[in-house]
Design brief:
Strand order of the largest sheet: 3-2-1-4-5-6
Largest sheet: 6 strands, parallel
Number of helices: 10
Order of helices and strands: EHHHHHEHEHEHEHEH
Low-confidence stretches: none
Structural class: alpha/beta
CATH architecture of the largest domain: 3-Layer(aba) Sandwich
CATH superfamily of the largest domain: HAD superfamily/HAD-like
CATH class of the largest domain: Alpha Beta
Number of strands: 6
Helix content: 40-55%
């Protein structure tokens, strides 16, 4: 499907795209490192955004060394993050609700494709009132391989009974973009914490500033 064709379905990432949660995760990581006397290497951390638990562990241990107490740091990281979630809903990103309402009114099927585990994902979407927009969810650990592999987006398209090429996929992170492009979706990237590199730009997808631009693009078709 060409970028200029109307999508039959839309596949959404969650953290950093619909929800302004990547900053919360990053801040929780920094606090967890401080808890255990390790420096917070944010350049390495950026490589983990949009990835699976297993890949995150691999990246951090490779960068910090075998002596890095990943499980201990991860437990603190999770504690700080979920403590913040307990304080109230995560902020919704600019244009997210308007885009979901726009697609819903036009009866466009939508699925969520996230690396976050289902219980946490459902909780965050419920708290923000976004859960009911989705016809299905593909969550962390539910496919054989996670992002940046194509499996989650292939599963998302299958949930909607569509070919990936008939779907728009909306992502913020490099790992998510790689997954969606390799699945064969038409990809829009709305960068969050990390701007796209030259290597990511060469994938040929469309890069926009906000989800409002995605809504305008769809409305123009």
């Amino acid at each position: 499907m060409r970028t200029g064709a109307r999508p039959l379905g839309v596949l959404f990432d969650m953290d950093g795209l619909l929800l302004d949660s990547e900053r919360l995760a990053r801040d929780a990581f920094v606090r967890a490192c401080e808890d255990h006397g390790w420096p917070a290497d944010l350049r390495t951390y950026q490589q983990c955004i949009g990835s699976t638990y297993e890949k995150t562990r691999e990246i951090l241990v490779a960068a910090y060394g075998a002596e890095f107490p990943y499980e201990t740091v991860d437990a603190s990281w999770s504690h700080h993050y979920h403590a913040r979630l307990a304080e109230g809903p995560v902020p919704v990103k600019a244009g997210a609700r308007a885009l979901l309402e726009h697609l819903s009114l036009r009866r466009v099927p939508m699925a969520l494709v996230t690396s976050t585990r289902r219980t946490t994902a459902v909780g965050k979407l419920s708290d923000t009132g976004l859960l009911d927009f989705f016809d299905g969810l593909v969550c962390g650990g539910e496919t054989e391989k996670g992002k940046p592999n194509p499996d989650p987006y292939l599963a998302g398209a299958a949930l909607l009974a569509l070919e990936p090429a008939a779907c728009w996929a909306l992502e913020d992170s490099a790992n998510g973009v790689r997954a969606a492009v390799s699945a064969g979706c038409v990809v829009f990237q709305v960068p969050d914490l990390v701007p796209p590199t030259a290597e990511i730009k060469r994938l040929g997808h469309r890069i926009v500033a906000t989800l409002d631009e995605v809504r305008v693009a769809h409305d123009a078709l």
